[in-house]
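Milestone 3.1: sequence recovery, worked example.
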């Protein structure tokens, strides 16, 4: 950790007052451009080390899939490494590795992103590789069949054989009955069974367009020089017709929904989510602070109360993200201690939520939470990769650079009255969906 990071961390850990120097953290301005074909480019010079991260974000995820064709966005991500008209299977990764870089990709509900991390003098490789697979993906039928089997096995391991993940998937399917957040990013197994090579290729041609993408580069480069190279590499790609916008709005919820999953498992599990607005609401900042107060780390209210003091849980936590294209859930979870029930833990979770509705948060506790949020944001900007992640996420969901630049100021403005108000408004039973995992004994016979 460098000296600046250590100084920031120590200041925030005190938890007494806001960090007044945060506004000076950004040495160079974030610059954004739009090429003639509609491709957005966000560049941020960081000269503290001779490295660079090059990321390409496409505004497509599981949110853009339709019933019966789930899993296409994630499967398409896999196929992007399986060969183009210019590079064979695996060549992309080999070229990056030989040049000392790392690469990977990830699919979310709202976007799919690809990245390479290089020494600064190797960034030109991204300018050759990424434009090629934006336009020249093959989707070889044999490779498609192999990769579909890989994804199905991934689903079995990460979801179907993981009781907690399976419960969360089914709980989300109950919480969102109309909106495509109903579907898991990896897709339903029955859909994966029936996807075809043409499904994947047509999905690629529809969404992998320059005017549906954003390039984010953070690191040691000259903006003018790199921008000229990006234009030379990407502007020859023709823009396409933008895919239809997702306009589905989840209907109002008129009462608590509950789902029980009975599965072989060692421990029970509770997962409870409340319908809440996303970043576009002014309430998003107060909800973020509320989430931190209740469930962020071992000093949070829930962990102190339910794990340390009442000893009802082995683990508790929660999250409000807000950085989603459409409204999502503010959720909490917990694992009861042996001898304690899901019902006892769930009741205690709701009691802690009611307490914060009825009793104002002490000034010191509120300031500590805001300082910790700010610390995480500031320290994230010490990394080229995570700075690019922040910028790419906010651009892809529609929040944009303005949200990025005003985030800390808006967090600092949150009052105890704001926290209490949003807790009363959003953390209500009628907008709650609850998932309960009931463990079943293992079917495996004891060999003895």
């Amino acid at each position: 950790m460098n000296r600046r990071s250590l100084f920031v961390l120590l200041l925030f850990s005190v938890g007494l007052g806001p960090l007044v120097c945060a506004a000076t953290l950004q040495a160079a301005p974030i610059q954004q451009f739009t090429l003639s074909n509609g491709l957005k480019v966000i560049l941020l010079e960081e000269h503290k080390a001779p490295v660079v991260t090059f990321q390409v974000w496409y505004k497509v995820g599981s949110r853009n899939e339709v019933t019966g064709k789930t899993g296409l966005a994630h499967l398409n991500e896999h196929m992007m490494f399986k060969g183009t008209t210019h590079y064979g299977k695996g060549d992309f990764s080999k070229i990056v590795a030989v040049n000392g870089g790392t690469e990977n990709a990830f699919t979310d509900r709202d976007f799919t992103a690809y990245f390479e991390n290089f020494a600064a003098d190797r960034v030109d490789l991204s300018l050759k590789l990424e434009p090629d697979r934006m336009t020249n993906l093959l989707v070889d039928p044999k490779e498609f069949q192999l990769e579909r089997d890989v994804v199905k096995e991934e689903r079995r391991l990460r979801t179907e054989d993981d009781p907690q993940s399976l419960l969360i998937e089914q709980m989300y399917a109950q919480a969102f009955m109309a909106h495509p957040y109903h579907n898991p990013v990896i897709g339903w197994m029955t859909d994966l069974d029936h996807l075809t090579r043409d499904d994947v290729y047509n999905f690629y041609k529809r969404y992998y367009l320059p005017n549906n993408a954003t390039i984010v580069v953070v690191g040691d480069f000259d903006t003018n020089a790199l921008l000229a190279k990006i234009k030379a590499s990407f502007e020859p790609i023709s823009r396409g017709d933008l895919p239809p916008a997702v306009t589905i709005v989840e209907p109002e919820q008129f009462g608590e929904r509950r789902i029980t999953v009975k599965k072989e498992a060692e421990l029970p599990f509770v997962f409870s989510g409340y319908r809440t607005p996303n970043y576009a609401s002014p309430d998003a900042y107060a909800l973020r602070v509320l989430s931190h107060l209740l469930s962020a780390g071992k000093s949070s209210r829930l962990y102190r109360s339910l794990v340390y003091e009442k000893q009802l849980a082995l683990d508790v936590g929660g999250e409000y993200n807000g950085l989603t294209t459409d409204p999502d859930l503010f959720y909490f979870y917990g694992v009861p201690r042996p001898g304690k029930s899901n019902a006892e833990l769930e009741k205690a979770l709701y009691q802690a939520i009611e307490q914060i509705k009825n009793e104002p948060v002490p000034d010191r506790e509120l300031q500590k939470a805001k300082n910790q949020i700010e610390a995480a944001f500031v320290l994230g900007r010490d990394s080229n990769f995570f700075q690019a992640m922040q910028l790419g996420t906010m651009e892809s969901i529609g929040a944009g650079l303005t949200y990025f630049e005003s985030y800390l100021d808006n967090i600092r403005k949150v009052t105890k009255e704001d926290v209490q108000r949003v807790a009363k408004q959003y953390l209500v039973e009628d907008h709650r969906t609850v998932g309960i995992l009931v463990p079943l004994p293992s079917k495996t016979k004891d060999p003895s």
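The domain at 24-234 is CATH 3.30.830.10 (Cytochrome Bc1 Complex; Chain A, domain 1). The first helix runs from residue 3 to 14.
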